[in-house]
Design a protein that fits this description.
alpha+beta, 25 helices, five-stranded antiparallel β-sheet
Length: 760
């Protein structure tokens, strides 16, 4: 970074915001409980109670249990103790839905089948049993199940915490619950809906106000048909405010009031107009007492400037290159398969010997026509002699060829033909290996480019306002960015990419940049990853993950000081990576293969390649490294530090170990190392880890006495809370002592990763 540039980062996020973030889960639980109370209390058409079960089915995993508790409480006390059979069926259905969502997290079908099925079956049992309630109960339970299932499915598709259809569904449940509550002439449902409609109109949110009026009006009508005039009045008032005075506080309230009066009076409902007008009037008057900033019109977000679709164009070009490389590999293989195969068998040696010697011999007619069978048997008898000795002598000729008048020339011709035959076979095998390696490399690169194209094709949801503020911050430092983009990925995590002219940053400067950029984006960023290429420097900011990885490793060589095992441990911006490669054999040749495989795999993973693609490319590199056979096992674990999801990939590696909840278990099956075959015979597995769990990779030398003692030792170390470095050292020292007792020394290595909460 230029010496004249000085960073003056502001203070971090205020403590009040941090405390609010800490209580956010409790607020979500409380809100879900209140919504469940409203949903369980709401009655549609005088007999249906679908909202409680529907909310239990549709709310997210962290809220549905609290919502179910609120719904059950409302169902129990609905009607002030007048408990009925349909209420009992609903309670059973809510309980079944909660149990199914706990037993099969993330799977919606079992919860829907359990909840709705229990409701229908419960109604059928009560209807058909002794003193049954008849078909009416079955009909009402079926209608409740149908409405609850549709309501829950809609909430799954449109979460209520996001503004839109899901919010309107939750609002309709609350409106239906309040629509049945009256205090004298005052209807709480009408007053609440009028208050929210007026507030939305004052804020200038015309479309949300109209949608809210339509949804809540329908809910009020379904809860109590006598509220239909009020629903019409609310819709008329909202439409008048949107058309006549959007965003102006006094005029909006006046327009809402006039529209409500007109709508209620236009619907003939003798005796009900005055209570409804009173309820709507109180709701419209409430926003007059709100703080001014609550009703400030929301400015329209400026449309982001149109930019050329560079990412889409780049993704399309990369996909085209990937398809070309894949097509090239397929074409090479197809052409090879279409060519006729030359008959490179020992018969070629016989034919070549005949053409070079016997064709011009005077006894050709006798040997190759009159005594063809005996001559061919004698020539075939030469094969084991040539394959064993590599050459012939006159004394080696079998009896069928003893009549040959040129025995020395026959031996020389057969020796030349066999040498040429063997060289042709070796060349064919080498060409086959080169073709396989070439097409495998083309195919692997095509897959890698396709993955990169997919990533570029969906860069995330842009945040133009934050992008502009981050760009302005870097410009204020004297380094205007060439490009700046703040995006949200599919999981809601913020990422920022800032491209600058070639600039160098020190570690304190990077930390300060992360702090200030995080303050602007209201996120907690790690120091950025720095990428430099062709006169440009790109800073990649990522949110701090929930977990951090602590590594430890230990190893010992079978003989001397050179071990064939190689370990790579590092953290990419979103994942912790741990690699263990065991070269075939021991000593320096094995060390070369193991180190090469580990280093290449680490570089490919840092570049964004998946484990499978990295293994395929490393397989090609080992196969072409030298004429001698090369191979190494590949043991890899990649842990997402945001979610704890771990991906394990093994090719020929010894079983690894996972310690979850204090219990250790081996993972991994038998497969071939990389560098042996044209393809990779690897195995992939996905597991989930949490803070305090261990992941352990070991070479086969450590399992000299099997995996049982390793699992027990890991459980002891986990119970004691040993750091990864100590765990690895204990495993290696114990395995070394066991190997010396059995007399089977081998390279021994252990690599350990432990997850800890970020900030621990």
């Amino acid at each position: 970074m230029p010496e004249t540039t000085k960073l003056h980062p502001k203070q971090p996020v205020a403590a009040a915001l941090a405390s609010r973030a800490a209580v956010r889960p409790a607020l979500r639980q409380g809100g879900a409980f209140a919504l469940g109370l409203a949903g369980g209390w709401a009655v549609l058409y005088g007999a249906l109670l679908p909202f409680g079960l529907g909310l239990t089915l549709g709310l997210p995993a962290d809220c549905f249990a609290a919502c179910a508790a609120g719904a059950a409480l409302s169902i129990l006390f609905h009607g002030f103790g007048a408990f009925s059979l349909d209420s009992l069926c609903l309670l059973c259905a809510v309980g079944a839905a909660v149990a199914a969502r706990w037993l099969w997290p993330g799977r919606l079908r079992p919860a829907f089948l359990a909840g709705c099925g229990t409701l229908v079956l419960g109604g059928a049992c009560f209807a058909l049993g002794p003193g049954g309630a008849g078909f009416t109960l079955v009909f009402f339970c079926g209608a409740d199940a149908l409405l609850a299932g549709g309501f829950g499915y809609a909430l799954q598709r449109f979460p209520p915490e996001k503004p839109g259809f899901g919010t309107l569904l939750a609002a309709s449940a609350v409106a239906a619950a309040l629509g049945g509550l009256r205090f004298g002439p005052l209807c709480l449902g009408v007053a609440a809906c009028a208050m929210v409609d007026a507030a939305l109109c004052c804020r200038g949110q015309e479309k949300p106000a109209l949608a809210f009026a339509a949804f809540t009006g329908a809910a009020l009508c379904a809860a109590d048909p006598s509220l239909a005039p009020a629903a019409v009045g609310l819709c008329c008032g909202t439409a008048a405010a949107v058309l006549l005075a959007p965003g102006r506080r006094a005029e909006t309230l006046a327009a809402c009031a006039g529209g409500c009066v007109l709508g209620v009076l236009c619907v003939p409902a003798p005796g009900t107009a005055l209570p409804l007008l009173l309820s709507a009037g109180l709701g419209l008057a409430a926003p007059a007492f709100f703080p001014k900033h609550w009703l400030t019109p929301v400015p329209e977000a400026p449309a982001p400037p149109e930019e050329p679709p560079r990412l889409s164009a780049a993704a399309t070009r990369l996909e085209a290159v990937a398809e070309s490389l894949s097509s090239l590999a397929e074409t090479v293989n197809a052409v090879y398969d279409a060519f006729p195969r030359r008959c490179d068998t020992f018969r070629w040696v016989i034919d070549n010997t005949h053409d070079s010697l016997c064709f011009n011999c005077g006894r050709r007619e006798t040997c190759w026509k009159q005594e063809y069978t005996a001559t061919l048997e004698g020539m075939n008898a030469l094969r084991p002699i040539l394959e064993q000795q590599g050459h012939l002598q006159a004394s080696d000729l079998p009896g069928q060829l003893s009549r040959c008048i040129h025995p020395a020339a026959l031996c020389a011709a057969a020796n030349r033909s066999f040498a040429l035959y063997r060289s042709r076979k070796e060349a064919h095998v080498h060409a086959e290996a080169m073709r396989t390696a070439l097409t495998e490399q083309y195919s692997a690169m095509a897959d890698a480019l396709s993955v990169l194209s997919e990533q570029l094709g969906r860069p995330g949801n842009p945040e133009p306002y934050k992008s502009g503020r981050v760009a302005a911050f870097f410009a204020s430092l004297g380094t205007p960015p060439l490009e700046c983009a703040v995006t949200l990925d599919d999981l809601g995590r913020a990422r920022a990419a800032v491209t600058l002219p070639r600039t160098r940053f020190s570690s304190p400067e990077l930390a300060a940049l992360a702090q200030e950029t995080g303050r602007i984006c209201r996120r907690d960023f790690d120091p950025p990853q720095v990428l430099s290429c062709k006169g440009m420097t790109t800073l990649l900011f990522c949110e701090k993950p929930a977990l951090r990885a602590v590594f430890g490793t230990a190893g010992t060589a079978a003989k001397g000081t050179v071990s064939g095992d190689a370990v790579q441990q590092f953290c990419s911006p979103a994942a912790a990576q741990m690699i263990l490669c065991d070269g075939m054999g021991t000593g320096r040749p094995a060390a070369v293969d193991g180190s090469l495989a580990a280093e290449l795999t680490a570089r490919l993973l840092k570049a964004g390649f998946t484990a499978e693609l990295a293994a395929r490319l490393v397989n090609v590199a080992l196969a072409l490294k030298s004429d001698e056979e090369s191979g190494a096992t590949l043991d890899l674990i990649s842990v997402d530090l945001y979610t704890g999801t771990a991906r394990i990939f093994k090719a020929g590696a010894a079983p690894g170990f996972l310690v979850h909840g204090g219990r250790a278990r081996p993972v991994g099956d038998i497969s071939l190392p990389i560098g042996i075959l044209g393809g990779v015979n690897g195995q992939s597995r996905v597991v989930h880890l949490a803070a305090g769990d261990y992941a352990v990779l070991v070479s086969d030398g450590l399992l000299v006495d099997g995996p049982g003692w390793v699992a027990k030792q890991l459980e002891l170390s986990a119970a004691a809370g040993d750091p990864p470095e100590k765990v690895a050292r204990i495993l290696v020292e114990t395995a070394r002592a066991r190997a010396e007792q059995t007399g089977r020394p081998d390279d021994i290595t252990a690599a350990v990763l432990r997850l800890e909460p970020c900030g621990h």
